[in-house]
## 1
Amino acid sequence: MIAGVVMPRIVGVAEMIVSQRRGEHLITYALGSCLGIAVHDATVGVGGLLHVMLPQSSIDPERARAQPAAFVDTGVPALFRECYKCGAKKERMTVYVAGGAYTGANDQDHFQIGKRNLVALRRLLWKNGVLVRAEDVGGVLTARTMQLSIGTGEVTLRYGGSERRL
């Protein structure tokens, strides 16, 4: 902290942070085809932010064990479990999603990672009865920055020179 300024905690690629510190802000940068997933339970004041890269851990089970936050299918359950350990309840949690952009050049996106990440996330959330409150997903590759305020649950998104609340 510098003279009363609270510095945000940075969530790197394939990382997650869960917090109960009311004044804390979690932030992740450069969401292109990756997804930023923010969750918050206002009743107990817990929130978390996850930056996933790929949809399925089956492509690299060893990495998934060492770094579950790299994949949608292992990272999202890990995020929810960590929030539950802090007293969060699934039915009270709000979920926000950003990223999943189209990364191809000249109308070609052979791997469609952004789209596949979104499909995997939606399938996982649907199977578990979890709804997304707000999202900013898809589109042409734009580096989105996503921030979660633990105290308020407010999620902001910055890209293209503007900032907006999700």
## 2
Amino acid sequence: MRNFILLSAVGSLLLAPVFVSAQSSASESLTKNSVFVNNCAKCHGKSAEGRFMAGPSLVSEKVTSMSADDLRNIVTNGKGRMPKYSGKLSAAEIDTLVQQIKSSVKK
């Protein structure tokens, strides 16, 4: 039993970098996107983890579990205090942001 626990712990440590790497690379692509940096980071934070009394985290499970159509609608038409970005961003830029948000869940 003791060997099993030790082996499990070692295995978890060996696999942890794989999961962290996959997770961080997805959110890095969002935060390195110039459209995000120039239009979203002011409210959602440079790391997309949200800002107190501003925009919510874009890497939370709540946001990333939303449908792509819902996210696209929010970015395009705005919601609450978030302004609409139709006319300011192209459909392709909005689609890229939505794809990057969907792939950047942080647990």
## 3
Amino acid sequence: MLSRAGAKVPAELEGCLSFQRMDLNARLLFPDAHFDHVVNISVLQVTVDPLFTLGEFWRVLKPGGTLLLLHVPRPDSHRLPLREIIRHRIGNLEAKSVSKIALIVLKSWAERTNHARYWTLEELGQMLEKSQLEVIRADHGPPIIMIAERPIAVHLT
């Protein structure tokens, strides 16, 4: 996925983006206040401790930096038998390949065996606030899209 993402970067943005494999369940290998922006797309739900991961995002963001969080809520199809979900998802593929079908099977199985967690917009907002990130925009989706900011100054109450 990282090489695919890198290959899609327009030439004018090549020096602005970084794609690296990293364990989101451990301290990120970046210094404090290093990034202007962090993008997290459908990954937080499979971390061991989402609040720890959000805390790491806060740590590596510069004050005033933003986190873009995209979260797909639990699909209604989760009520269906696993075979039907897989059949439906494969049927929606434009181009079928062994690797795409394998990913669908693996993702469907992981979702069904509770390796992925799902939150509401409100629950995600509470998690971001606990991580000292301020929600500046939220879209109910689906998918849920939230933009949060590491405050420039700490608010005293």
## 4
Amino acid sequence: MDTAIRMRLRWFVPPHELGPVSSALNTLMVAARGQPGCVTCHLSTEVGVRVELRYVEEWKAEEDLKTQVRSSRFSRIAELMERATEFPEIEFSVPGGTRGIDYAEEVRGGGST
């Protein structure tokens, strides 16, 4: 039974952005690993005609994830995603199911449903 709380991001950047974006993401990953509730996080890249970035964070509890989504660290991740050459994919795996960007907007905006 997979009960992991996860944030998955996938996006493409221009080849000349790979170095700066990867460096920034590595810094953010180190910061995430020091946060309470962090299980793991990792970054992978696939370099071809386009450069694909895949970034994943796993948290012990949904509240840990929500704390991170509200953080300035998440804001920095969102800024990096703005460098994408096409609309990024974002997915949150939480106890209620899999959600998209609406989850982040709800958590950051304090919205309730």
